[in-house]
Design brief:
By secondary structure, the protein is an alpha/beta fold. It has 11 helices and 15 strands. Bound molecules: arginine (ARG).
Length: 292
């Protein structure tokens, strides 16, 4: 008995025969309809819904404007989101963004709850051991935020101060390396805006986080009276999209899409939408050290 007709057969012959039929078929109906064999009645193919295209679930910690954040309507928006959407369109894949707390984000990829992570994630050698990254889509570096009247002038000045960071970020890594992992002066927060709010409240002396996010916050919260301090001691960073280790097929699609949007100017358009200039003049902040 051709499998494609199993359902109709059951419908017309009743459940009494179900066991017998299933035993004869040896397996369940396939989820996607196979091409109907020549002998199958035409109705059998028509009654099965067309196969649903795979929707890739993209995890993002949407508390990171202007890269990924939630607008008043609760929609996830930002540069990262626009880049992924444009890449997906080029790659011919469908994506869906799911707000995913930073602290669980890598685990969610590992567990298969997310197919792609797009969350301003810096490509690091350590992370490369457990996940695969696309080519970079954005250049970044760490930037220090302090109160406008602070004497902090360089990263070294933070050694003995209370510093706020987002847990497990490259900012956390830089400060942990400086102060030592047992330092009680490092205050870790679940989001970067929370760390910056604590700076405003006076609970920490400085925050170390990605330049784009710090500048965005300082610009939009003039009342907080912050200033930023840059230091070439911070290594240049690059954001990439992460996929599960070994998912070469998806990685290739994303890289191809990324190359396409860089080639046809749509990446530059997205960049200008958020930073108002070509990538070279990023965020009106000093460019990261050219070497290192
Ligand atoms: N670029 C930094 C890192 O990879 C921070 C990224 C945080 N992203 C976020 N959406 N919270 O560690």
């Amino acid at each position: 008995m051709p499998q494609i007709t199993t359902r109709r057969f059951l419908q017309t012959t009743g459940l009494m025969l179900a066991g017998l039929v299933l035993a004869a078929c040896g397996k369940k109906e396939p989820e996607a309809p196979a091409a109907a064999p020549a002998s199958a009645p035409p109705m059998a193919a028509a009654s099965a819904p067309p196969p649903a295209a795979k929707v890739y679930v993209v995890g993002t910690d949407a508390a990171y404007a202007p890269f990924e954040s939630q607008n008043e309507k609760g929609e996830i928006v930002g540069l990262t989101i626009d880049v992924v959407s444009a890449v997906a369109k080029k790659a011919g894949i469908e994506v869906k963004f799911v707000n995913t707390p930073w602290e669980g984000i890598f685990n969610a990829l590992q567990q298969g709850d997310r197919d792609i992570l797009a969350s301003s994630i810096t490509i690091t050698d350590e992370r490369k051991q457990t996940m695969d990254f696309t080519n970079p889509y954005f250049d970044a570096y760490q930037l220090i935020a302090v109160k406008a009247n602070s004497k902090v002038a360089k990263f070294d000045d933070l050694k003995k101060l209370k510093v706020g960071v987002q847990t497990g970020t490259t900012g956390d890594e830089a400060v942990t390396k400086q102060q030592g992992k047992n330092s009680t002066n490092i205050k870790r927060f679940e989001s970067t805006p929370l760390a910056l709010k604590e700076l405003e409240a006076g609970g920490v002396d400085a925050v170390v986080a990605d330049n784009g996010v710090v500048i965005n916050y300082v610009t939009n919260n003039a009342g907080a009276k912050f200033k930023t301090v840059s230091d070439k001691a911070f290594a240049p960073e690059q954001y990439g999209f992460a996929v599960k280790k070994g998912n070469a097929e998806l990685l290739e699609k994303l890289n191809k899409g990324l190359a396409d949007i860089k080639a046809d100017g749509s990446y530059d358009q997205i960049y200008a939408k958020y930073f108002g200039a070509a990538p070279a003049a990023a965020a009106s902040a000093p460019a990261p050290a050219a070497s290192k």
